[in-house]
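Hello Y.,

Per our agreement to keep a running log of every chain we model this quarter, I'm adding this entry. I've kept the format consistent with earlier entries: sequence first, then predicted structure.
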Amino acid sequence: MITINGDQREWRGGTVRGLLDDLALDGRGVAVAIDGAIVHRRHWESTEIPDGCAVDVVTAMAGG
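Predicted structure for the entry above:
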């Protein structure tokens, strides 16, 4: 189980990139933090998301 943006979710394990795929996010305009630490885009493929952690996924939106 992990927490994504405050909501608990079952987690089978995997990387940041895998989570974004599960969330149908292609990665453009997205920032990810695990337990408050930002994960740089170049590390998404290799950074495993541990069970029990809090993940924040922020997407940029155009507008004004």
